[in-house]
Each structure stands twice: as C-alpha cells, then as structure tokens.
Amino acid sequence: MEFTLITLLNGMSYGLLLFMLSSGLTLIFSMMGVLNFAHASFYMVGAYFAYAISSSMNYWAALVLAPLAVGVLGALVERYGLRTVHKYGHIPELLFTFGLSYVVLEVIQLIWGRAAVPYPIPKELDGPLFTLYTTTFPIYRGFMMFIALLMLASIYLMLTRTRIGLVIQAALTHPDTVEALGHNVPRVFMLVFGGGCALAGLAGVIGGNAFVTEPGMAATVGSIIFVVVVVGGMGSLAGALLASLLIGVIQTFAVALDYSIADVLAKVGLLVTPETPVYSLLKLTIAQTAPILPYLFLVLILIFRPKGLMGTREG
Which residues pair with 297 in a beta bridge? Predict the structure, then answer.
C-alpha cells in the first residue's frame, strides 16, 4: 500500500508537470493550428531565466518574472517570425520552429555553458510534506501539483468566463467576424502564442530545480510533450490533462518495478539461464522498458483511436 500510494503521488506530480508543458502547446495548436517544435525550448529558457533571477533576487520573484519574460519572448517570435512565414503554409511554420529550437539551444550554451547550473529548490519548500508509513512525500512535489492545478483552473476560467477568452475562441472559428467587430485578430494570436510560451516558461521554473537545469533538458521532455498532445487529442486541453496523468503514472510505476519475465518464470519453477532462447529479452526489466512506454502508448492510440483520447479533430 505504501509503495502504491507514494508511487501514485509521484506519478501524478510528474504527470501534472507534463500537463503544464503540454497545455501551452495544446492552446497554441487549438487556437492557431501551429505545432510549435520549439515549445520545449521555451521550457528550458524559463528554467534558465528562473535560475538567473533567483540568483540575483529570489525564487518567488523568478516564479512571476521568468514566465512573463518567456511570454514576451514568445510574443516577439510570433510577431516577427511565425507571422512572416504563416502565409506560406504549415510546413514553413514547422521548419521555422524546428530551426528556432536549435538556435535557442546554442544561445543557452553560449550564455550559461554546457554544464548543469546550480538551480536549487528554495529552502521554504525543501523538506517533507507528510510521511506515509515510512516514506516521506516532498513539499516541492506538492507545490508542483498545486501550481499545475491552479494553472488549469485559471486557463479554464479565462477561456470560459472572461471577455478576452470569448474573443480568443471566436477568433479561432470566425476570424473575419471578430475583425469586423473591431478586434485585432493578429494581435490576439500573438497573445495566445505568447501565453502558451509563458506556460512552458512556468513549467521550466517549477521543473528546472525539481529535476536538473542543463542544455539537454528540452530534448529530454520535448518528444514526451508531443506524445501527450497526440494521445490526449490534438487541441484538447482536457485530453492533454488526462494523457499527462496517464503517462506520468504509467512511467513512474514502470521505473519503480524492477521485475522481468525471468523473475516471473522463476516463481513458477522455470529457471532462465544464459543458454535459454531470447535470454536477454527475458531478463529485460520493466524499469528498463520505462522510457519506451509512452511511445508504445502513442503507437497504440494512433492505431485504435487516431483522434486521441478526447480529440475532436485529426492531427
């Protein structure tokens, strides 16, 4: 019971971090039809900005200022980059964001180097939140979950209960009508792209010290984000939440389970030796297969439900 509950909580906290990342990408795609390959790069920029701000000020200032700075950077990218290539179609947009991810990586390495930077968890959040039997659950993991849920509630309320949310949704389906009513649709899209990048930056602030802040962090989570978006359903925020939690929990449980088929066979009296056919496959543990499980999940979803778990449109 102890193992199950603690692993479930760890999986949910990791899943909610994935949701913080994928929510911005989902919003950008659902509102603008742009699949931003540089989204994980904004996550990395958020972590490095938070490191720089917390070094000179404090973590709480970084929690506010770093996502805002990333949002402004994202808005500038949309205004002076994406908007220029938008008229040429989706392929130039993909190529632009793909190239941008490499530019961001090189700039990060030029400024902060190739090694990991010391971006620690703040002292106020460093310690156990509670103890379950003999295992403690960290305060910071609980803080990650709280911020993710607060962000989810804020996005939902903004899109459904505010005037700007209604304008954004209307601009998605009826841009000409919205423009005729006096709203600047390109500016709306710029704000949406900047807002999505700010969410990635917020995930960087939260995840950068929970894991590690180094130049490879964007590549580490980049592919997982796209798995989440496709599995949940392209453009579905609820689907992204469900897929994030599923993938987070599945992967966390898999990492914690150090069992193989050989172990199961040994329990029923069948001994596996190096001479046994496919010995290496039988000795492969669940923990060793954990990195490929999200992609296996993706393949199964594409085969049996191409629109994703809660998708309403093809990707």
Answer: none
